Predict the structure of Zinc finger SWIM-type containing 7.
Amino acid sequence: MAGALPAVTLPSVVAELLSEMAAAVQEGARIPDEHLLSLKFVFGSSAIQALDLVDRQSITLISSPSGRRVYQVLGSSGKTYTCLASCHYCSCPAFAFSVLRKSDSLLCKHLLAVYLSQVMRTCQQLSVSDKQLTDILLTEKKEEA
């Protein structure tokens, strides 16, 4: 599981924390409180919001026969955002502003929820054709414009 996490794009302390959380889940244990506190320390209120998204099972992994994988996260506002875990990207405005422009956050709550759902193995799964996945991505792009 740890190999699936984007260790290259996340600071090593975050990758290590997610890896330790994944190990706890794999052993069938609860995620230790100390890990949850560390998550809150690193990500602030986004950690709680991301955990809420995970609890509500708002994350769906969409995969196609060609191996392409994108995540869709149903945000608390009811809008769906597309996340690309492979390159550490989310289509939400908070990612564009706080992560890319201001660099005052490592991740938005949607992308953090994607990583947490991977760790906790709570991600919904949806298989679609390559054309359907392309249509999903193009629809997202049109909505942004």
